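hey m, so remember when u said the tokens were messed up on ur end? i reran from scratch. heres the input so u can diff it against urs
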Amino acid sequence: MRISNQLIALFGLTTLAILPCRAVTQSEKPMMKAVVIHEYGGPEVLKLEDLPRPEPKENEVLVRVIASGVNPADPLIVSGKYAKEFGTHLPLIPGYDVAGIIEKRGAKITKLKVGDSVYSYVLWGGGWAEYAVMTEGEAAIKPASLDYIQAAAVPLTALTAWQALIDAAKLTAGQTVLIHGGSGGVGSMAIQIAKARGAKVIATASTPNQDLLKQLGADVAIDYTKTKFEDFAKDVDVVLDPIGRDTLARSYALVKKGGFIATLVSRLDQTELDKYGIRGESIASKPDAIELAEITKLIEAKKIKPIVTQVLPLTEAMKALQQAETHHTRGKIVLKVADEPLK
């Protein structure tokens, strides 16, 4: 999924007011709480409302949401900046990471069943609500070793890192990868996926996050506020860039001939690619239940762990969105929608 590194100064309240529930008669549809926007704008456009619970189509499951992740793309979607690219329309329920329990399934669902604990990257959103629908191609069984909060921090960022490093760059054991923004949601997943692949990892982050880079497995941790990454990263096989602009421009020369640059936020300069004899791709991530199941295996093998630095209730979605738009979140923010079920 493409996300911009352009920050927008947005102002608004930090907590959503809970609207009173209206009475629901037996003849009416079951209702749910959901964060919804009726117009594009800053965090202040988020409203917590009572909406009819969605009904799954024959190729969908209905999930009772326990937690939903917050991503850097969310403020840009809410602002309308990428409404066309994401195919969004109003009214819109944001939220593209979901962890919860299946309550109902459509007639054409064959792999998932009612009662399954799942996590998912939902292409069209809807996760910031008590219930969400998703297809079987989007959802995978939740890792047993993770709670729902942790699981909600995984799908979009892990799939973005996987599709950049594994699908696009074809990263293999013994290669060297430079990962910019290693302490962020995608970066933290990318370091772990690359290490699980057997690659050498050079990662950049600010001073407070140097220890995190090492904990995640980075072989070389670079403090970009104190030194130039070019001084430590030369002749790398792969670059993963979630930052763009000057960072991307300075990275072309570091890739060895035949190497690869994957960027999440910019268009690549074909002239620069040709100049250095390298390849590249602007990554637009997509849901993939099969790849998510592969990521689950790495989680269960303790080769990947999500980094959750803030958990907020659904009523504080505005505050979460304000933090996300800074693009300086360590790991992930997660919205808690419901209590964890008793085991």
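this time it looks ok to me. The mean pLDDT is 90. if urs says something different then somethings off w ur setup not the seq
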